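Hey all, quick one. A colleague (J.T.) asked me to put the iron/sulfur cluster job into the tracker so the inputs and the structure tokens live in one place instead of scattered across chat threads. No bug as far as I know, just bookkeeping. Sequence used:
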Amino acid sequence: MPGLQYLKNVASLSANPELCVGCGLCVEVCPQGVLELRDKRVVVARRDACMECGACMTNCPAQALWVEAGVGCAQAVINSALGRKGNGCCCVAEPRAAQQGLQTNLEAAPPRKSSGCC
Amino acid sequence: MSPAPQPLPLLTQMPPQEPVSSCAAPEAYGDPQAQPFVLGEEATPAGPVPRVGGELSRADRRGSLRVRLGFGRHDYKVVPGLYALNHPGPNSPVLVSANYKLSFDHLRQAARDLDAWLLVLDTKGINVWCAAGKGTMGTAELAARVGSSGLERVVEHRRLIVPQLAAPGVAAHTVKKLCGFSVTFGPVRAGDLPAFLAAGLRADPAMRRVSFPLAARALLVPVELTQALRTYLWLLPLLLLLAGLGGLVGGSGFWAGLAGPGLRAVGAMLLALVAGAVASPVLLPWLPGRAFSLKGLWPGLAGAALLWALWPVSFDAELAAWCLAVPALSSFLAMNFTGASTYTSLSGVKKEMRRAVPLQIAATALGLGLWIYALLAG
Ligand code: SF4
Ligand code: SF4
């Protein structure tokens, strides 16, 4: 069966090998096999396969990874563009960096916008 | 080219107890024991825990079928908390789940031959992947649920097995800091859990990857269809009415308009629906292009060709209208399938939408204009 690949050169993923401590957790949690460890440092091996789920960033204890995490869902993008809520789609259209910003600094962070079913 | 690394959020800090989202009121859940799938109680040092088995009852299967068809998907919940699967002991594994009943049933069925604890998080009845993206299946809820369930008195070990697809929301190192339990990410598919446990909590690379096989895509088609019908069904009576009115104005009469261009419009719309919401998902890997809007174009063009072949006259403005609108609508519906797919990214979806949506709107508007012209020209 032909492989399924999404658009090229769009993923917002970036890795900073300088900060990496080589724990390998990002490699383990990535559902797309994007990351690899070479010489105990993280390497983005298949950037175009990244679906921007944010699992690697959330689980990196050294904060060596960054991605504008969100869910690739057209309906959610439409919902949030229209300011619509309560629709059947359960995705969050807004990048999750903003939401995770909330965890850092509750006052300064922008309100988290979610769309779809909640 | 990649963007420069940005300052990273301090995930090590204590997250708020509730995911900061005000759109859902705190959920009131009833008595876990009163749920029909609970078989009894398991006594533990932290008090009785509802016991479940791995066999799905007829009611469970009916419920699964119902939500798979797209009905009541947002009210299919399990009371959060700790459950005993079969007869677990203090050394049995703890498997973490979302409280979407489909996820819960899937897990207990996959692990039906095991004795295990099931820790069900309050994800507002949403599946693991979506809930992790929203943060309800997250670090804070997991740590809080470990505390409120008295898990540290129920088991002697300090390990939680969390589905890998929850990793966007669950920061393993923070969970450990908050509640003392370490997180091991289990396989992507619950069906691989027994093998994962038997191998000493080791997942081979295939268990760590999401795939999107035909069967999984086909399972999503009914939901896509009901969703699309629910959203666009109102268009059909509107088109019929317009066709009837067009008949009146054009001189052929209301009923002739309704039965002619009206019924043809309904047929064309249903054709677009099947092309975009059925053929596109099913044929996904074989359709040329990477963007879903492009993939959806091909079944739409095939639909237009079919329409042309069946058309009563050789070619007219009405047929031209549908040759524009059917591919455009199919492309739009296929684009909506990005949400259910397992490999699209937000940046990618935004990029393809920036290009495709204006074209989809232009083609549909042009088609509508031609159609109205054809109606009035009679
Ligand atoms: S964002 Fe998700 S898909 Fe992309 S590299 Fe990280 S874990 Fe993998
Ligand atoms: S999770 Fe972070 S520290 Fe660990 S290997 Fe990946 S990038 Fe390096």
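Adding what we noticed when we looked at it: Residues 86-118 of chain A have pLDDT under 50 and may be disordered. Chain A touches chain B through 69 residues (CB under 8 Å).
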